[in-house]
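Please check this chain.
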Amino acid sequence: MTEQSQTQPLGHEVIQSYLKTIDTSPGVYRMLDAESRVLYVGKARNLRARVSNYARPSGHSPRIARMIANTASMMFLTTKTETEALLLEQNLIKQLKPKFNVLLRDDKSFPNILVTAQHDYPQIKKHRGAKKEKGAYYGPFASAGAVNRTLNQLQRVFLLRDCSNAMFDSRTRPCLQYQIKRCSAPCVGKISPEDYRQTVKDAERFLSGKTTDIQSRLASEMAKASEEMEFERAAALRDRIKALTQVQTAQGINPKGVSEADIIALHMQDGQACVQVFFIRANQNWGNRDYYPRVGADVDAAEVLEAFIGQFYDTREPPRQLILSNEIENPDLMADALSGKLGRKVELLVPQRGEKAELVDGALRNARESLARKMAETATQTKLLKGLADAFELPAPPERIEVYDNSHIQGTNAVGAMIVAGPEGMLKNQYRKFNIRGDELTPGDDFGMMKEVLTRRFKRLIKEDPDRTQGHWPDLLLIDGGAGQVSAVREIMREYGVEDIPMVGVAKGVDRDAGKEEFYRTGKRPMALRHNDPVLYFVQRLRDEAHRFAIGTHRAKRAKAVGATPLDDVPGVGAARKRALLAHFGSAKAVGRANLSDLKAVDGVSDALAETIYAFFHERG
């Protein structure tokens, strides 16, 4: 790996100098500016040939020409194959977020449905993250909403439990789910283990797309029940068949010839792009999601779609088929890389006719409409940011607004919250929460809480981005509060030498009514905006979003605290052993009173751990 001195000139001459030191191996290259920030990450089948293209003084698109002009040094990493180079390139793009690359900005994981395996009466539930728990996983689904709808449908049809094992074991009578015909109440023996297992198998067949078999079997059982004069059972089976039919009707797109695929369609307009992804599993539509990758005005569709696919499946398992709206630059290479990840063949298709082409057309229509809405929202947001700059006399429309709020009940479970907004609206992946730590704070001291939150925020910014080059520094702070809050925050900003960041306190007016907000700035008189000013509504939305996030964070912390027990502080007692101890003794207080031999009798508690638990409570007593 080689790096050029920053004292040499920028541009194609610098790039030309590297041709002497690199060979024809496949690999990945990085282009850096004079401050060693990565401008671009690329792959090459032949590094020397690719770099020689950049060394030409002319013949480049405007975007590439700007990139070359800013290049002060390069770095290289050779690989054994071009496929390895492709995988490494996408990994580095996601990690480094270079300015001139196409970048996928939303990288959330997708939820699955899990049918558990370690219980006589399996539970069906939503699952997100690593697949560590034993059971059968079905997905991915496009969103938590898509999973919740499917779970609700499955409960209506198959009456499977969704309660936790602890809740299941503690029941002595059926819960509300049984009363509204969403569960068969296995917890109290309303269904036999054999019959319940059969319904679990039916649910798994449904999730595998074998719905016709289920309906045929249920119809046969209903006829048999009628013949045997079991009219109540026949009516229950009839209701299940009806619910299953309604589920199939509500699902919409259920392609007959596509069993497992992601439909990926790209629409580009005016230097912006929308990629629409539909998830087809078991011949069923499991939802769709739109993405807005960062692109340039002169990037072609093939480059955008290839970059999207590489980054999208970097941490996800690809399906057997990707059905695309456009060709990509290296389809064979991408297919090899995805096949290696999945461990079986992955096909990339660009259909021209038939059902697959119709699916792509539908996805394209969604992408086109989504991008139109996004561009309209962006235009509105741009106008609001300009209005905000004019109202508060800012030097330019802010690119990053940070809004802060606190939440607590009489000082307990106190949290601070920060939300972020910019030209693209609310940036939820940038939201942050702060558990208030200050032991010396007086309960309910809002000034002290805000000072702690801002102190921690600016300490981290100064440590991680001292030169303010990574886009993490705010252009405007909005604080929930009046003159006192503004003064407290200004003191912190003065201490850390960041007084150049504009800051506004947002306080309710004398009647504490929405629409009568007063705005406080250091060294200036309080001001107000017209009650029908769009900028006022915008600030109210920002403040309300910060308040919503702060309250949600506080409630989650409070709920966790309510469920806490002294067992949480015992060394070696995790969640599983805590459940075992509470199930055995009934309460944490009873655990503390138990003798050593009783503690040793608990499943999963070793002699050494039993002695630790006994000593913990004995010393506390």
